[in-house]
Specification:
- The complex is a heterodimer of chains A (333) and B (276).
- Chain A is mostly helical and 333 residues long.
- Chain A has one domain: Orthogonal Bundle (MetI-like fold), CATH 1.10.3720.10.
- In chain A, 75% of the residues lie in helices and 0% in strands.
- The longest helix of chain A is centred in the middle third of the chain and has 34 residues.
- Helices cover 77% and strands 0% of the residues of chain B.
- Chain B has 2 domains: 48 residues, no CATH class; 211 residues, MetI-like fold (Orthogonal Bundle), CATH 1.10.3720.10.
- Chain B is mainly alpha-helical.
- Chain B contains 12 helices and no strands.
- In chain B, helix 4 runs parallel beside helix 7, helix 5 crosses helix 7 and helix 9 runs antiparallel to helix 12.
- Classes of the chains: A mainly alpha (333), B mainly alpha (276).
- Chains A and B meet through helix 1, helix 2, helix 3, helix 6 and helix 7 of A and helix 1, helix 4, helix 5, helix 6 and helix 7 of B.
Amino acid sequence: MSVATERQDPGPAAAGVRRSGEPPGPRRPAPGTPGRGRLTGAAPYLLLLPALVATVLLLGWPLVKDGLLSFQNLNMRQLIQHLTEWNGVDNYRETLTSEDFWRVTLRSVIFTAVNVVLIMLLGTLVGLLLARLGSKMRLLLSVGLVLAWAMPPIAGTTVFQWLFAARFGVVNWVLDALGWHSMAHYNWTGSQFSTFFIITLLIVWQSIPFVAINLYAATTTIPGELYEAAALDGAGTWKSFTSVTFPFLKPFLLATTFLEVIWVFKAFTQVFAINEGGPDRLTETLPVYAFIEGVGNQHYGMGAAISLLTIAVLLALTSYYLRIVLRQEEDEL
Amino acid sequence: MKRSPLARLWPNATAVVLFIGFAFPVYWMFTTAFKPTSDVISEDPVWFPTSATLDHFQKALDAKNFWTLVGNSLTVTLSAVALSLVIALLAAFSLARMRFKGRRGFLVTFMIAQMAPWEVLVIAIYMLVRDGDMLNSLLPLTLFYMVMVLPFTILTLRAYVAAIPKELEESAMVDGCTRPQAFVRVIFPLLAPGLMATSLFGFITAWNEFPLVLILNKDPEAQTLPLWLSSFQTAFGDDWGATMAAASLFAIPILVLFLFLQRKAVGGLTSGAVKG
């Protein structure tokens, strides 16, 4: 697969552009130096303007609106009568003192942790397996991975509902055939644990391919000399993995873990569509909780407060990596 | 180093098991869609169907509003992708080719915008769209999908533009082209693969979007296909043949796109998503 090189390209090329476009220190023209036309000075900003306007209007405005709503007492009545009732930090106080919110937050964090650990661990193993396979078997496994990766979340969710259907579901049949007869007509969406089991299986199934295929692509860029050198030093398979493969893949693994944390934490379609947060609201994660409290129960102001708290939790979960990225950008751009 | 046949057995056997695990749900979706109902609701699963029927697809296609929703999905998705490409191309060119104050800030802004928590902003978006009296309209969906895919499109295209040697443009300009002309004649054709890759990703994102349309467009005539599929499942309950036919109809365009996209997808996504 030719993909690995594409991943590497932008870096060095961008560095080259910088070198030719931005001469070091003394030769750099002082700000306001004549010679550059006014148009050139404004051009980059004009080109960025449509993107900025669109982002500020359609992303920034909802964020601000969400902030404003979170300080309002806004339910069905106020919505219909177009009333604006400010109630200060009441929504936050009520949310933060409610047991429900903390239970859902804890559930969300555990859900994210379990999924991301499974995805990264199994994804890495499958990726390393891809690297060891011959070309035919690699193609076969890749086809399977791409099929799972390409399934739209809502279609995948529907298929998993069929696989785990209580009647005629193939999973129950297999479990029954394997001797676990009480599973013959088991209702998977009937309990919290089994519903989460299906959601996790679904998300892990759909997410492993991204990690595995990208990781395989990354391993193909490891210079072979590194392994030769390690072999000369008497390194075995495990040693050469820990001293060559792993350090090389570390930045990739870090970046992917960060992405998966965001994706899993925000996952709405799968969690909502499998059982709408049920049974008894026991599988609501934070985004689903905000949706059901806000829209379903028509406590819009409350829902807005929950959604802002959800963003705060997500930022806390990713802050370690965000710091690294932002610092890196400072250095590299 | 040549491995013995025995040493290769384990990886190969694992690969086959994994292939079955990953492909089976997709296989089961397609085969169920074609199976006669008696095979779908058989006490023992029919692993390899011997007879096929198109009845389930007929039922899925006959479902109320299906073609309206196909039209809606295509309109929203294609216009969102086209708009975002134009806007992103301008921004990507500026970020990749020009030096100016605040450039780093803009880049970081788009990187952060890429993480936008759209799933939890639906309440605010609902209020805004309702205040503008635009519920059950395709326009807000189009605009929001456009902004959803915009940061990724900008950052990825920026990487593609940056990878094209600057000298190509400069020599075109020496030959008498203006800067915009040089861009259109020299850079644009070289960017074609990048444009393909990013627009396919945009298409997939917008085609699959669920939470926003769920809350904005309650009117059955103004919905898109993901809602159709989820409500189809609810309405047809245990008619798994028809439901799997519907799921197949929804998934096929994306599965086909992915076949074209897969090579570009690898790596491109992580570099665009994280590194810009």
